[in-house]
Specification:
about 200 residues; alpha/beta; methyltransferase activity; methyltransferase; Class I SAM-dependent DNA methyltransferase; transferase
């Protein structure tokens, strides 16, 4: 059965009863994730962040808490959902693209914070590998790559979930030159030389 990222999908996972608490798409949980990503990026950049690229942004839920923290930052989002782009694209600076389009798509200069949250584990390997190099090239600071594996206890939307081992993603991220910081955060290739040995897990 084909998966549709339509209004019903977002209502269920981001606005319905399942999303009102601390789990799945809960607002409080999102705010903490955004704060963590912003603080980590600014720690390594040693300045406030100015730019965010959100790949697989859905309706752009990261935008509001990001702008609350840093009102002057530039937010740019891309998603494959025609519904989300038609409804929120103009107001939230969201644009239509599949992940594989990033094999060639470079919509901006490298950003301070790159977000690809809850996306990669739903992609076929061919599409994943086509778009993946963009994550390394478009990240000029820190990337938040929230990705789940077969080692994790999965709650929420399991339709189309690819049960890959953690090493599958770790090897690919490291091949891009990204360095693991923990908590789904990865340091850009350009900043790796400036970190202390114990800031990056061995």
């Amino acid at each position: 059965m084909t998966k549709h990222y339509d209004a019903a999908y977002f209502d269920r996972w981001y606005r319905g009863p399942v999303a009102r608490g601390e789990e799945i798409g809960g607002r409080a949980r999102l705010v903490r994730k955004v704060a963590l990503a912003v603080a980590t990026a600014e720690y390594h950049l040693e300045r406030p962040i100015r730019s965010v690229l959100d790949i697989g942004c859905g309706e752009g839920p990261w935008r509001a808490p990001l702008l609350k923290l840093r009102p002057k930052l530039q937010y740019l989002g891309f998603d494959s959902s025609e519904y989300a782009i038609a409804r929120f694209g103009a107001r939230r600076n969201l644009h239509h693209a599949r992940f594989a389009d990033f094999a060639h798509l470079r919509p901006c200069a490298p950003v301070d914070l790159l977000v690809c949250s809850d996306v990669l584990h739903y992609l076929d390997t061919r599409e994943l590998d086509r778009g993946l190099p963009a994550l390394g090239e478009l990240c000029g600071g820190v990337a938040f790559l929230e990705t789940f594996t077969r080692e994790d206890g999965i709650d929420g939307d399991t339709h189309g979930f690819k049960r890959r081992p953690a090493r599958f993603y770790r090897q690919r991220f490291e091949a891009l030159g990204l360095a693991a910081l923990g908590s789904h955060l990865w340091l850009s290739p350009g900043l790796r030389d400036g970190v202390a040995a114990l800031e990056i897990p061995s």
